[in-house]
Every structure is written in C-alpha cells, then in structure tokens.
Amino acid sequence: MENEKKNEEKSGKTSLKVPEEYLGLLADVRLLKSDGQNPNRMTSKQMDEVWKSFMKYGWTYPIIVNKDGVFVDGEQRAQVLKAHGEFFAPVLRLPVSEVDRRMLRQILNKLKGKHNKEADEDEFQRIVEQGEKEDLKKLLAAVGERLPEELAGMPRESIHIPDVWELVISCKDEAEQKRLFEKFMAEGLECRVLTL
C-alpha cells in the first residue's frame, strides 16, 4: 500500500505515462545540461511527432546523462517536454568519462540498424490495416519519407517505396553552402538546400 502511494506521488510529477520500472528515475529535465555541441537535429515537424508519441505511449526509454547531468541521449526529447510544460522524465545517470559520453552519443544517434525495404513495406501495410494510416503518413513525412497512397488498397506486389540515399553536409556559413552546392550541381549530382 505504501509503495503504491509513493508511485502515485512520483508519477504525479508528469502527466505522461511512466513505466513502474522508471518511476525511481524521474528527475527535473530543467536541471540537465547541454554541451551545446549535439550534432543531432530535429525539425519542428519531427518534434511534433515526438510529442504525439509521448502523448500516446508515454516513456518507452529514459533520457541518458553523465554523472554531472550532461546529455548523452534525449536532449531533443527534453526540449519537446519543456516546450509542452512537462518537466519530469526518467533520467538514467551513467558514470562515464567525457570522451565516453561523446562516444555514447554518437553510438545512440548513429547505430540504429538499416531498415529492410520489404520488411518496412510489410510493417507499413500492417499499420495501415490496423487503422493508423494517417498517423503513419505524418510520421513518415516528419522524416522525409512518403507512404504510397495506394498502399492500403493495392496487392502486395505493386507496392513500391523507392530507395533514396542522401548526404547532409553541415557548412560553416552561407558562402560555403553556396560553394558546395554549386560544385556538386556542376558534377551532375542532384542537390537541394536544407536549412534546419
């Protein structure tokens, strides 16, 4: 009975769902620190999708910081929370060195696996069949992909999601961006300017 009361008090700090296993990790995200050098960026559309995910599923994994409260993983999720007036999240503190904090950030940002195109198509179909077509379309749009409109009604063989490979280059200023854009266009590469 006393444990239930403590869990209610802890989870009362946030309106989002928090798994019981994470309740002991709840911390104020306003006290966490950014090094200002996180290479991961999200568009406002992606941040909206993160908020929708929070509203629907709650916390599926914690924010990770070092022992001093500097972000390893979850800095954008913390920004989304604060923008919506939520200030508590499960926070896992790891006793890692500064270089290990940076390495972990790279690992967690980059090593996510590669999606198998056919498996993705199958998963899209299952999601559409379960009535979440519009949410899936919004999610894919937030990451620059499109769900074929005909997906829900066409036979499996006619579904096609094109392979697309992109390279994003961070430039030090607008002049460098223009120079590289013109260079790559002159080499016959298809280029577009992306401003985040």
**What is the CA-based Rg, rounded?**
21 Å
How many domains would you count in the coordinates?
3
Q: Helix tally?
A: 7
Large-scale geometry: globular
Kindly provide the name of the CATH class of the largest domain.
Answer: Alpha Beta
User: Which architecture of the largest domain does the CATH hierarchy give at level 2?
Assistant: Alpha-Beta Complex
Major β-sheet profile: 4 strands, mixed
Task: Summarize the helix and strand pattern as letters.
Answer: HEHEEHEHHHH
Q: What gap, in angstroms, lies between the N and C termini?
A: 49 Å
**Strand-pairing-aware structural class:** alpha+beta
Taking pLDDT < 50 over at least 5 consecutive residues as the criterion, the unreliable ranges are 1-9
Strand fraction: 5-15%
